[in-house]
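Collaboration report, partner site 2.

Our partner group contributed sequences for two proteins of shared interest, and the home lab folded both. The records are reproduced in the order in which they were received, starting with the first partner submission.
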Amino acid sequence: MAYIDLTTKNFNEVLDNNEIVIIDFWAEWCGPCQKFAPIFEESSEHHSDVVFAKIDTEDQSVIAQHYGVISVPTVMIMRDGIIVINHEGTLTEAAIYELITHVRCLDMDKVREDLDNNEE
């Protein structure tokens, strides 16, 4: 499974209909983004239960600004629509695997409880 391009038109639908979404925020002018792209795509081939998506921060600046992306590449992993990983910089394929494994094991009831407690 390759990645999908997220835009303001499909963003909410993709997040609402998938348990785990890993997003690469990137820009065409970014050298590290270009080097990370094949790693991200290769990882998508090994995790069919995870949606891999890319957001071009130049083209989709509204989404990037909403999520406070100030550096590219930035990788965010969302589970049940909640950001559980926010990483600036590139990752190795092994690191992506480890992060996905970690995210799969999260107790989302506890995550939501912690979020509620932090908002008070």
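Second partner submission, folded after the first:
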Amino acid sequence: MPELHLMFSRQRRWMFFLLAIYVLGWGFTSYQTIFLGLVFGTSLSLFNLWLMVRKMKQFGDSVSQGKKVRSLGSFSRFATGALAVVVSMRFPEHLHLISVVIGLMTSYIVIMIDFFIHSLQIHK
């Protein structure tokens, strides 16, 4: 499990870097609804990433102890996505819906990019 926490640490660092860029975009451009949607969606995406890592750790602990295995929390992540869409549709003057959806997908994009970068560094 240590490699899971190392991966999460790297991915969390990338997510915070993207969030900082989005906040700067929100503060210094005229596309405030788009960048606020990206901030909102990416924040929830980071929460989903943390939730997924936590559930994977619990899953690994349960398997190693021979206990019954519960789900990996897909319903919680879907509910977070639904909440993001509902909030962005409720406040369209502040949040751009497409930006929120792109922000929700950010953690999966970061996971893929981190995997490719890390696998290239290992094979050198």
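Feedback sent to the partner group on the second submission included the following. The two ends are 24 Å apart (CA to CA). Residues 32-64 form the longest helix (33 residues).
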